[in-house]
Amino acid sequence: MLQTIRTALLRDTSARIGIAVSGGGDSTALLHLALRVAPGLGFAVEAVTVDHGLRPESAAEAAQVAALCAAQGLPHATLLWQDRTATGNLMDQARRARFALISDWARGRGIGRVLLGHTADDQAESFLMNLGRVAGLDGLSGMRPQWQAQGILWQRPLLGQGRADLRDYLRRNGVAWIDDPSNDNDRFTRIKARQALAALARLGISVKTLAGTIANLSQARAALTRTLSDVVAAHVTEAAGALLMPVQIFDDLPPDLRRRLLSAAIRWMAGADYAPRESQLGRLGDNLAQKQAAMLGGVRFRFAADRLQISREPRAVMGAMATDALWDHRWQMTGPHHSGLTVAALGAAGLRLCKDWRSTGHNRDALLVSPAIWHGDRLVAAPLAQKSDDWQAKLGPSFGMFILSH
């Protein structure tokens, strides 16, 4: 287990590491293992707990994690989820809130990556859940061991470890953990999957055998990803956050690669956690096959001469934010940040103030949704539409890197 953590840590050079700790056995084991390895490798560690406020015990559990960290002399923060809505999928809302809160915390602390405690059991349970949703290759290929999002590298170093083994490790080391009572509530789909997995053991279907199946499917997905990455590197141009691709190359792609390209472009531009539904991608593909402009998931697809142009939909971009925030999922501004300034889309009004924007070589659609610095209604800087000595806009990750990491 220690070697697993050591290998994961050495994949990146971020000096400060965050550990997401709920207090359960998996994340507590991750914290304990990381604290045994990270200091010797020169990494500083901090812990974070998200209190969703969904159970009466959650505040006390967060306090218990804080006490555990204090005993280790480890910096710890408890983040409260306070903006949930009364409608929609509560578990999905909680998951999104958790990642957003931890991302903000990590960036504010100068932490470049965060470790999560998902295990081989989580992999197996997710596999069964996705089977019930008639998932394709992507949905059955397992959780990503690492990916980049919100300016943070996220890692799951325990995906090869079983839940029972981690608890045995904690017992051997005299470390207590919290058992979440919701783990016995079969109203939740994941708990039903856990119970189904126990029943399937008689057929030889276990966490271990499913891990082998997931690994095989993951290799197939990786091969497709590499092929798509090669196509993008050879034929797709990234300019001011937009993508340009020769129509002939797009038309000649096999259907599955074409679908993957469209899905990846939407997720990259819109910051979506999941790919659009197959039916939506199918309609989008039909429109593009007929050379019709289309929109999906906050992304616009248009044809200009012999190129397919993919750009952000103006009505979908984020509103004004603080200049040091990650704007519209992808853009980070560098410059003289101070109160009174905001980052927002350049828009048509702003573009009219950039007299020489055509000399940049960027197309109008891309510049309309590019980030600009505003002081109220006054345009301060538009780094992509005109030269600025004070401000720069950094886009990350690139589309090619996004494909490889997702």
UniProtKB/TrEMBL annotation:
Residues annotated for ATP binding in this entry: 22-27
EC class (word): ligase
Catalytic activity: cytidine(34) in tRNA(Ile2) + L-lysine + ATP = lysidine(34) in tRNA(Ile2) + AMP + diphosphate + H(+)
Chief location bin: cytoplasm
Pfam families hit by this protein: ATP_bind_3
Subcellular locations according to the entry: Cytoplasm
InterPro entries: Rossmann-like_a/b/a_fold, TilS/TtcA_N, tRNA_Ile_lys_synt, tRNA_Ile_lys_synt_N
GO biological processes: tRNA modification
Domain tRNA(Ile)-lysidine/2-thiocytidine synthase N-terminal intervals: 17-195
Record EC number: 6.3.4.19
GO cellular component terms attached to this protein's record: cytoplasm
Keywords of this entry: ATP-binding, Cytoplasm, Ligase, Nucleotide-binding, tRNA processing
Keyword Iron: no
Origin superkingdom: Bacteria
Matches recorded under SUPFAM superfamilies: Adenine nucleotide alpha hydrolases-like
UniProt GO MF annotations: ATP binding; tRNA(Ile)-lysidine synthase activity
Chain's role: Ligates lysine onto the cytidine present at position 34 of the AUA codon-specific tRNA(Ile) that contains the anticodon CAU, in an ATP-dependent manner. Cytidine is converted to lysidine, thus changing the amino acid specificity of the tRNA from methionine to isoleucine.
Domain remark in the UniProt entry: The N-terminal region contains the highly conserved SGGXDS motif, predicted to be a P-loop motif involved in ATP binding.
Family the UniProt entry places it in: Belongs to the tRNA(Ile)-lysidine synthase family.
Name assigned to this protein: tRNA(Ile)-lysidine synthase
Species annotation: Gemmobacter fulvus
Taxonomic classification: Bacteria, Pseudomonadati, Pseudomonadota, Alphaproteobacteria, Rhodobacterales
Gene it is expressed from: tilS
